[in-house]
Amino acid sequence: MNASFFGELLQSISDRGRALLRPRREEAAARSESLVELCEDLLSGRGEASGVALARDILSRYVDLTTGPRIAFFEALATRFGTDAARMETAIAAWRDKPSDATAAEVHAASEPRRQELFRRLNLAPGGTAALVRMREQLMDTLDHRDDLKAVDDDFIHLFSSWFNRGFLVLRSIDWSTPAIVLEKIIRYEAVHAIRDWEDLRRRIDPPDRRCYAFFHPALVDDPLIFVEVALTRDIPDAIAPILATGREIVEQDKMRTAAFYSISNCQRGLAGVSFGNFLIKQVVEEICRELPKLATFVTLSPVVSFASWLKRERADENSAALNAADKAALAALDAPGWWADAETAERLRDSVMRAAAWYFLRARNGRGLPVDAVARFHLGNGARLERINWLADTSEKALKQAHGLMVNYQYDLDDIEKNHEAFAEGRTVVASNNVQRLLRPPLELVPIAG
Question: Is-contact 288 386, C-beta < 8 A?
Fold first, then answer.
């Protein structure tokens, strides 16, 4: 009887909960449905002036949506604004009946999801581009648990890749005379080495041996898409601390031989998947060469954000191909707090960690046969060479957690960029210096990796 009473009580509470939630769900559905109907009106309208006004109204109402109605709106984009099946069937039948450029063009047009044209019309509203980039950010927040919305995300990427084509981007030098509204965003968007305050920013962009460049788009005024910080040095840097030091010695212009790209930050999360970095690096190299023709070496000083997590998995894997028993035993010292600050412990760890890092970069692959390191995929795909792995190059808390303090140099040799790019794109070959290859035991030969 007690069990029965308890069950009835839970059922009663559940029924009351559903009753309380129903009006909220109905209200959310009504709000998103109203917005969907406006979108249908926008697609069916032909007047440009009225279309702009309606697009502005839709985006304004979208901003006011809370999480529930917003997800319902994304669901409607996925289900109600996909490919017009009837138009597609008609187009295919016409092409089969009479194949021609015209009927093929109609098949192509009919296959396009209706939401792509909706996004184009929404983009006509004042501030439409920025609003759609923010909309995609919010869509991305749902994708981890909503695979059914991926098609909507794919359409965003397809359109953004055209709208943010390199031909529309403007490269601007960032210095201390740049408007404060832009400098504030540089501080906020810095994703690799946090900028502590205005003085820290000034040390990075004002001295004669420092540069900063950013790409801008006409539709996002004073809001950078991506920026790179550059140190002009004598030699290839092997640690970040001397670059960011407060009391460092300024390098005189006639002694500058190396341009080191030590931070590349993407500013717009909603543009993830639209690559600007390759264009940015190449154009910055051109800009610097015009100003300083004596520069001979162009390198990065890059983080290794997933090395520690990969190494942890390999240490736990009894059948690891990357680590032998001796390496696993030595690497146990990584679990000791503050290991890196003890010179003797750090030296004992060095060989094993560096060998593991060489394997990580040269042999470890993801499911598509590409290097597991995202930064490596980016630079190698742009034609760089893995030049050097630097031991304890960054001892910040973040770098120790992500990479056990490692950083790497990728070198952009202007004579070899195209050759390196082709080797990576066609054969998944990681082009690396002899110094990196010698770290492996046994040495690794540069052979294509099947992908």
Answer: no
Domain boundaries of the chain, sorted by first residue:
11-163, 166-300, 303-437
Which CATH number among 1.25.40.20, 1.10.10.10, 1.20.140.90, 3.90.78.10 corresponds to the domain 11-163?
1.20.140.90
Short-list 432, 421, 390, CA closest to 303: 390
Structure tokens that stand for 21 in this block: 């939630």
pLDDT tens digits, one per residue of 371-425 = 999 999 999 999 999 999 999 999 999 999 999 999 999 999 988 988 999 999 8
3-state secondary structure of 364: coil
The CATH-assigned architecture of domain 166-300 is 3-Layer(aba) Sandwich (3.40)
Element (H, E) at 316: helix 307-316
pLDDT digits (tens, 9 = 90+) for 1-14: 444 444 444 344 33
**What's the pTM?**
0.84
Alpha carbon distance 251, 207 (integer Å): 9
Q: Which two structure tokens, joined as six digits, stand for 365?
A: 């692959």
Query: 195 vs 119, 183, 244, CA distance in Å?
Result: 36, 11, 10
List the CATH code of the domain at 303-437: 3.40.630.150
CA separation for the pair 427, 449 (Å, rounded): 6
